[in-house]
Amino acid sequence: MIKADTRQQSLARLTSEPDWDVIVIGGGVVGAGVFKYANQLGLKALLLEQKDFAWGSSSRSSKMVHGGLRYIAEGQIRLTKESVQERELLIEKAQGLVASTSYVFSHHRNQFPGRFAFNTLMWLYSQFSGRKQYRSLSPNDYAMLMPGIKQDKLLGGTQYVDALTDDARLVFRLIQEARSHGAVALNYVKVSSLLRDSSGTVTGVTAVPEELEQGIELKAKLVINATGAWANKLDSQVIIRPLRGSHILVPNWRLPVASVLTLLHPKDRRPVMIYPWQNATLIGTTDLDHEQDLDIEPTMTREELDYIFEAVESQFPNTKLTDKDLLSSYAGVRPIVLDHPIDKSVSASHEKREHSLFAQPGFITVTGGKLTTFRIIAHHVMNEAASGLGLQKPLVPFALFENAQASHQKYYGDYLAGRFGRFVEAFVGEFAAQPKLMQPIRYSNTLWAELVYAVRYEQVQHLDDLMLRRTRLGNVLPQGGVAELPRIQALCAEHLPWSEQQWQQEIERYQQIWTQHYSLPQ
User: Fold this and answer.
1) H or E element that contains 221
2) Largest CA distance in the chain
3) Are strands 363-368 and 355-360 parallel, antiparallel or unpaired?
4) Is 383 helix (H, G, I), strand (E, B) or coil?
5) Which end of the chain is more exposed for a tag (fewer CB within 10 A), N or C?
6) Distance CA 45, CA 34 (A)
7) Residue 511 CA to chain centroid, in angstroms?
8) Whole-model pTM?
9) Are 262 and 226 in contact (CB under 8 A)?
10) What pLDDT band is residue 341 in, cutting at 50, 70 and 90?
11) Which residues lie closer than 8 Å to 85 by C-beta, 6 or more apart?
């Protein structure tokens, strides 16, 4: 289906081909974007991730591809403009994966911002996309989108356009398309150290795959540190303020919304979103300093959960969400890059979100920025590296994704075409003769066939890779989808080199991870 090396073949290439043009460290959306762009530029590219692809921030974001209205108010006009323009490009180039979505904001009498002030902001926001993308809604029309919304002093709302995605799937599309053109990407390979010559120039890395005890020395013309919140572990000059954002998912029948609702939290006036995602309702995010070990999965706290409940009650006073309503929670860590020592007297929410780049001979660190702007970040990195790699400027533009043919998009639908791009015909060809595998798992979007595809072609090393990143069953099904594990094992066992004992160990491992980091705060 995919013309790419197996994991075993990729590991073998590390020892047989120790010389690379570019080694990218970090398998989040920035690392994946740089990796794919390097491949498009004709470079021999290798991506190494110490845990799973998208394990960090890139599977735990708010899933939004947007400009960020709040950034206009904070004076970050350039970031907002870039983000809106990238949003438009992604909606066009990643059809079915990045989807234009309705967003709304409530207007209540004597509440700031009022309709006039908010719509003035929306007018400026729309200028960046080149067309008007908002309208006013009457109280009745607004209530149709937001059943149960607070009626007291309700004047209606404003509806506007941004986009939503599956952030982890975005990462896998980038990686898989680069792999299909000969690039190598490996998860669960830790970079233990940088290699340097006598002048201090970085010349490569020492990589330690999970399967091996000894490290492998790999040479490269350029090493790129795209490890996000972990960037200063390889580059001590970088100052990062790690900020935790937490979310919850509840059944859509408990809080049915037909649009993304943007609200300002009554406690601190921070934006919080309530929106439909993967046939559930997702609510978040918080914005707090994360002071725990970054190598341990971040976890929502009780205070954050209460904060989110308070936000919901401010807009839906009769819904009364409780702990029992949670399908799951998740927390991610944003890498906020500072040009000054960390000062926690400054509100976390007011720190700037632009990406930063730090270059030294043979080595570039890039961190910060937004999910939406990964293409711009990748272009910035490769433009900085161009002369050392023998690339001629101006660089060929980043072509983004290889989409399904128009006929395939129409025939297979946006969901499959968005998840698999140009591989969608091969995906359907492989599984169409097994109609039971082309059925969704319970009320989720995920097809049974996607599990088989993932374990065959997407380097699933652990069960949580499959349940929390290749699919989102662990997020949207009760108890992390534990009731489906017997069938998942029966379906996937022949495609994974796990003994029965290993299966049981993986199930125990997954349940422990889910209980500690994705359920109610302990």
Assistant:
1) strand 216-225
2) 72
3) antiparallel
4) helix
5) C
6) 10
7) 22
8) 0.95
9) no
10) confident
11) 128, 129
